[in-house]
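Next comes a single protein record:
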Amino acid sequence: MNRQGALGRGMRVGLLMAGVPVLPWAALALGLAAVEFLRGGDTDLAARDLRYAGLLTGGTLVAGALMGAVLCAGLVLVSRAVRRAWGLSLVGALLGVLVYPAVLMIVALGTDVAYAPLVLTFLAWPVMTLVAAAHSADIVGLTRRRAWLMARLGTRTPGA
C-alpha cells in the first residue's frame, strides 16, 4: 500500500465530487451575466449573476479541497486496520455521504436557495457517494485502477 501522494489523490476526487454538480450552475450564471451585459439590460442583475458565478466557482474549489482532505485523512487512518478494497470502499462511501453537504451549502449560497439547482444537486448526492466509494482504494494506494488519479502532477510522458 502506497500512502505517499494520498492527499493529492484525495484532492482530485474531492474536486471531482464538488465540481461535477456545481460547475454547470456557475457556467449558467456566467452565461446569463454575459447575455444581460451584451443585451444592455439590467446591469445590476448581470453583476449579481457574475457574483454568483464567482461564488459557485470559488466555493467549489474550497468545498472540493475540504472534501478531498477529509476523504484522504479518513481513508489513510482506516487503511491501517482495513486491508481490503471493499472495506475501504465502504469507508469512502460513508465519508462521501458526510462531506457532500458542503456542496449543497455552496449551491444554496450561490443560487439564492433556488429550488431547481438545490434539488438536482441533492439528487447527485448518491452518485457522488458512489464516486467516493469507487475511488477509495485508489486514494490510499491499495489499487491502481485509474490512471488519471495516479498520475503525478507536473510530469510529462516522454515524446509528448
Notes: The mean pLDDT is 90. Residues 29 and 155 are 34 Å apart (CA to CA).
